[in-house]
Amino acid sequence: MQIGLKVMEYILNNSINGIVIFDNKFKIAFSNKTAQEILEYKNSLVGKFFHDYVPKENLDEIKRSTDETFHKIRFKNKVIIFDILPIYEQQTRKGYTAIFQDVSKYESIVEEIGKFKELNRRLEAIIDSSYDGIYVTDGNAKTILVNKAYERITGIRAKDVIGKNMTELVEEGFYSKSGSLAAIETGKQVTLRQRLVSGKEILITSTPVYDCNGKREFIVTNVRDISDLVELQKKLSVTEALNEKYRSELENMKNQIIDVPEIIVKDRNMLQTVMTALKVAKVNTTVLLMGETGAGKGLIAKLIHKNSPRAHKKFIQVNCGAIPRNLMESELFGYERGSFTGALKSGKMGVFELANNSTLFLDEISELNLDMQVKLLKVLEDNVVTRIGGEEPIPINVRIIAACNQDLKEMVNKGLFREDLYYRLNIIPIVIPPLRERRDDIIPLCLNFLNEYNSKYNMNKYFTTSALDSLMEYSWPGNVRELRNLVERLVIVSQDNKIDESTLPGYITNRKENRVVDILENEYEGMGLKEATEKFQKKLILRAIEKQGSRRKAAEYLNVDPATVTRKLK
């Protein structure tokens, strides 16, 4: 019997598991060598207490349980698992046997495996989130991974190709040719068009991936639906064609207005006006220019003449408001010698004769009295003029460009302008927007006038950003003429080369903060609420369309239905 106990002790001491036997008070009665090593105790654990090594909550559970219990604890830097078996004698629990192992190294392995799984999960999520299709084979062209985008683009299911070699798939007709096989053959990245079994064409790029020893590990293929590229190419071609068209039109317009350098066009409103004037210039018809004083009616008239078939003839201009009324008829139609006291002995040609085969610009035509309006209408209808004191009608071929800074239609309603003459002049009406409605032109005009007067007075003045900001905010009741005069004054009177905000007149800087008042006074004065509201809504909608690029986007920007935008514009 003693020999049997020694054999048992030998077996227990050489077990890879730690074994401890303790009584109900957790006093250790037996421990093997492995237990001592795991619990880091040099001598025998007999007589020690098990609760010195196991946390209290685990001991409580051992006491409560009548069956085997399993525990995992941390002891110093170790992770130890315990299997606690109760010892019964005649149905009375006498103590416990604890069988345990140090699983620290296994724990780190499990943790690493967990990290690898998480990394793998993230990588799969990234690959599946790619818009482009991704197809991966091993170094021998065996399919190992296909993402969702590839299935969407090609219509080929992953389960139909995973595990199959590309050679096999090409033979079965899945693909017309393989980028993976081409990359293996060349050892380099390959890009080619691939026709699928469905007849669809895709663009693929296959790239070989090598390990640190230069051995080929994978072939990664990126896939894109070529139909998207074709569509994009078509859109690009259309865009380039439109750009070329606009570039050609702008270059043509630039060449046309080169003789009128004062016309600086950047704002869309003014650009449309200039383009209309250039179209009208080619046609020999009467034009009525309308706009505020100083807005540039004279410049537009010269632009029309210089781009018309009559450009080789001298441009004749008459300001109807600057000629005394008693001299108006003789200036327009001329007179024979001796026609009236003070007349030249040789007589005099009128501006209609001077403008024969050319262009006559009648500025401020609203200043003509009703009698002169009758005579002017007759000349326009008959194309003949009779000098004062003369009898013979003189044929003329004159193109008329009239201009006014008042509402001629309103003057007709008030009986101040003849209705028949109004309709005779209003064949092609062109409205020149005031400077406050084409603010994108303000800074280019400023810089143009600055260069002009720097050159004229041999100076080197320049505007600061704050000064230009103030000029942009001003309402410019005198329009371009007021801007030109102000720039000349600033160039002359500024003390140094820098023209800053402090150099500007007070009426500009003081009113910078009253922009809303300026708008109300200049644009909406005298209007009823309905008319003013409609005008404001129209400007707001047009600006939104310009910024957003379409009526639909403008409607979203303004938070209204697209149908509302269309109805408002009509």
Describe the structure in your own words.
The protein has 570 residues and is of the alpha/beta class. It has 5 domains: 2-105, 2-Layer Sandwich (Beta-Lactamase); 130-229, Beta-Lactamase (2-Layer Sandwich), CATH 3.30.450; 257-431, Rossmann fold (3-Layer(aba) Sandwich); 435-522, Helicase, Ruva Protein, domain 3 (Orthogonal Bundle); 524-569. It is built from 23 helices and 21 strands. The chain has a 5-stranded antiparallel β-sheet with strand order 2-1-5-4-3, sandwiched between helices. Strands 7-6-10-9-8 form a 5-stranded antiparallel β-sheet. Strand 3 and strand 4 form a beta hairpin. The longest helix has 31 residues, at 226-256. It is elongated and about 165 Å long.
How many distinct helices? 23
Shape: elongated
Secondary structure: number of strands: 21
Round the Cα radius of gyration to an integer and report it: 48 Å
Q: Provide the number of structural domains.
A: 5
* C-alpha termini separation: 116 Å
Condensed summary:
This protein has 570 residues and is α/β, with parallel strands linked by helices. It contains 23 helices and 21 strands.
Q: Which short descriptors sum up this protein?
A:
single chain; 570 residues; alpha/beta; Beta-Lactamase; Rossmann fold; 5 domains; 5-stranded antiparallel sheet; 23 helices; 19% strand
SSE blueprint:
Blueprint: H1 2-13, E1 18-23, E2 28-31, H2 33-38, H3 56-64, E3 69-75, E4 78-89, E5 92-102, H4 104-129, E6 133-138, E7 143-146, H5 148-154, H6 166-171, H7 179-186, E8 190-195, E9 201-210, E10 216-225, H8 226-256, H9 268-281, E11 287-290, H10 297-306, E12 316-319, H11 325-333, E13 334-335, E14 348-349, H12 351-354, E15 359-363, H13 370-382, E16 384-385, E17 394-395, E18 399-404, H14 408-413, H15 419-425, E19 428-431, H16 442-456, E20 462-463, H17 465-473, H18 479-493, E21 498-499, H19 506-509, H20 515-523, H21 529-548, H22 551-558, H23 562-569
Parallel strand pairs: 11-18, 11-19, 12-15, 15-18, 20-21
Antiparallel strand pairs: 1-2, 1-5, 3-4, 4-5, 6-7, 6-10, 8-9, 9-10, 13-14, 16-17
Helix pairs in contact: 9-10, 16-18, 21-22, 22-23
